[in-house]
User: Fold this.
Amino acid sequence: MPDLLLELRSEEIPARMQRRAAEDLKKLVTDALVERGFLYEGAKAFATPRRLALHVAGLPARGEAVREERRGPRVGAPEAAVQGFLKSAGLSSLDQATTVTDPKKGEFYLAVIERPGRETLDVLAEILPGIIKSFPWPKSMRWGAASAQPGSLRWVRPLQSIVATFGPETETPEVVPFSVDGITAGTVTRGHRFLAPEPFEVRRFDDYVPALERAEVILDADRRKDIILHDAKDLAFARGLDLVEDEGLLEEVAGLVERPVVLMGSFEERFLEIPAEAIRATIRANQKCFVLRKSGSDELAPAFVLVSNLVASDGGAAITAGNERVVRARLSDARFFWETDKATKLEDRLPKLDSIVFHEKLGTQGERVARIAALAQEIAPLVGADPALAERAARLAKADLVTEMVGEFPELQGLMGRKYAALQGEHPSVAAAIEEHYKPVGPSDRVPTDPVSIAVALADKLDTLVGFWAIDEKPTGSKDPYALRRAALGVTRLVLTSHSRIHLIELAKKLVGVFEGSISEDSIWRVAATSSDEFATKPFDREEMLAMIASDLLAFFADRLKVYLRDQGARHDLIDAVFALPGQDDLLLVVRRVEALGEFLSTDDGKNLLAGYKRAANILRIEEKKDGRAYDEAPDAGLAASGEPEERALAEALAAARHEASAAVAAEDFAGAMRALSRLRAPVDAFFEKVTVNADDPALRKNRLLLLNALRAATREVADFSRIEG
Amino acid sequence: MPSDADLSPTRSFQGLILTLQRFWAAKGCVILQPYDMEVGAGTFHPATTLRALGPKPWKAAYVQPSRRPKDGRYGENPNRLQHYYQFQVILKPNPPNLQELYLASLEAIGVDLKLHDIRFVEDDWESPTLGAWGLGWECWCDGMEVSQFTYFQQVAGFECAPVAGELTYGLERLAMYVQGVENVYDLNFNGGEGDEKVTYGDVFLQAEQEYSRHNFEAADTKMLFRHFADAEKACRLYLDAGAPESEGARHRIVQPAYDQCIKASHVFNLLDARGVISVTERQSYILRVRELAKACGAAWLKTDAGGHSGDRAAAA
Assistant:
């Protein structure tokens, strides 16, 4: 079966776009083939800095013939209908059509259209130019003399040549005949820019790959990555060092070379006084080099691994020396930043935050810091932190944003603040909190354990959430530009891992109040209005609106918590059952209650009680509907006592269980509350077995319904059982 | 007297400049002298900004002293300067072998391509003040960025048709590289040895110190704010004064207006270095300069050099 080889050779393609472009090329070409009925056995795409290549194996030489019958109008139909039929069927006159007789509708024209299978080569020549012209590069450009005309070809960088051949293994493949904007597909390509710049011919994929290798080009990015990683580790090992692996950097570097040559350079020991993270940041971001560790230690070594694109005639000595010089200059800069930063105390930098806008509607970083400091101080006692330390840490937490080092390497925010804080003799918890208040950044990021860090991290995230809520910048669908979901998940994880007791509604209400000054009344009203339909029409007071925003935010937390707990394996219906109770804004208690509920429902007592509850709820639903009233008052104890023994037993058990469960919940003993409920199982089962609810005596019937309602009420002490599935 | 050898690009700063000028002169470029105004980069020179617009072919190369007030380091940083030289090449339309020409120019200044690792690393260029953008690369030599290579797509808010290729060589960096020097102030400027040797520091160290003081501490911000407003006003005034007299006629005062746009841009950079422009204001200043640049670009397209096809009013 014949193969397609396609190579699009251009000037240097940005590293970050290569992999995606190769995949796009494969998908576009194979989809277009399949769409036209051409199936293939396999396809693989490749990218280097200077070429995209595609190999599609096992294509047919030509497509299958198609026979199609097309039914036309009735014989004797109006001329216009006949002409339309002839046109659509590609016939020149009715002589070319046959007629068929339909028993019901009479005689019709029929066109039999037979199309021979098309040559795959022709189909490729038809498909490829369009794919090249509309290739989905994230950014593309025009170039050269052709760009004087509108509609000239766009590519990621100037496209230099196209190789496109098609044919079976045993014969010389044919060139796919097409051209795009003056570039004609052929068989000629070039190798490595410096090592093998001469043009050469290729015929098919099987000789293309080795020909490129001879021309010092390794086509497969994964092979380039393997070579780099392997050689880098070897070099490191030979010097008694460990490579600090970095997948992102490896991927990028593999996209910067066609022929990787790994070399090692070194720098002066004295630069190691710069924080290791800053050394790594500068060497990685600016030089795209890997750093190394002293073997078996966490300490950086004064050396780096660089990946060049050249087999140099001096073995790489000049390249290494050149890179060392640049690294040295970069490290001198970093040391300059480090030294300069150290000369100014963090608190002295704070005024600068007043001129940095955090968000147009939420004021400056300076204002934000003031809010976070006040909040951290307030939260501190709730999480077991010293309020003064929390306040101090929050006040300094953003100061490193205006240091030289963070200005140069934004990814070092927090970390540099911690270093500078430690140097100026801040309390260790304060220093730690400056770094850790950003945490946890994602679902798998570490959650800080120092109470001061927790207080500041909570304050930082709550301020963000409430602020954006207040100005109505909530996440919608997949859009969450301020990472508010992440912040809410962060709060959730912080609260749960630290076992902190925080009433979010209260805090949120207070915070919304803080924002009141800095946000327009309009926007509060708008938020409140969108939170509830009723608010849009009725006049309402301000207090109510603030509460509205806070409870809307709480619902967001509930959603985040659900996602989080579901990931931990908890049942979402149990979470719903707990959140359905009023005032559930203490995440820790919610989780404990969900856990206790889950355990209870896994016992026989729990399962049966749930079944009993469902039965009771069903009966109540039907009877309440029938009678047009709710049975929600307390049952008559005397009447129950004089009834059946099971009725009496249930009434007594309910009174006791409800009282006990309520007391246990008040003491936050959820397992105890569940135990109390579990004692209802036997009386409930016995009641349903022996007692007829719909008694003939209306008073008796009513009281029995009220007993069932008491069961419903008792279970509500721990959760809304109606939300529980099963 | 210095011998000829002293003017080799690897031995003297001026030798490097002369070599690049010769190289590009041989490729048909007009060799211009620096524009006589303070600019942040060689791109601001009207020979690039304005000439990149319109259909007419254009090839030029020149050195442009460039001022980045914020980059001043009082002469204490071996790599950062608030005043430095760029060597600028502009070719419109870009020839198909521009990368090869660029590499040949590196060989001409003494970079052996068999020994050194030259890389084209993605760098999309954008000048918000000029309303310009292009795609291209930073060119790395052994890990050091030595040039910018850009295919202009848009300038002053107008599509470039045809596209021009722009090369910008950072002369100090290149010179440090080929001379093997680690501190810019140690560069041999004139190629002399012993008493005859003049270093980059001899020429510029004092200036760096003085201008750093000026840029960060002394520059008269009141005056500068005034100058900004004046330049903005003057730019508009000149554009109005030279506006086509009738539909389809030529614009007659573009370059003097563009000078005022350049001036506004530099004054803004000075104010920025003095730290008197807040983050929010910053954006609006940039926009104001861009509006000037766009107006100048639009006017340029109505001139002869901008490709205006004929003075229909005059012909009529």
Observations:
- The interface with chain A takes residues 55, 77-79, 93-96, 99, 112-122, 124, 134-137, 141-144, 151, 153, 160-163, 165, 177, 182, 278-280 of chain B (CB under 8 Å).
- Chain B has nine helices and nine strands.
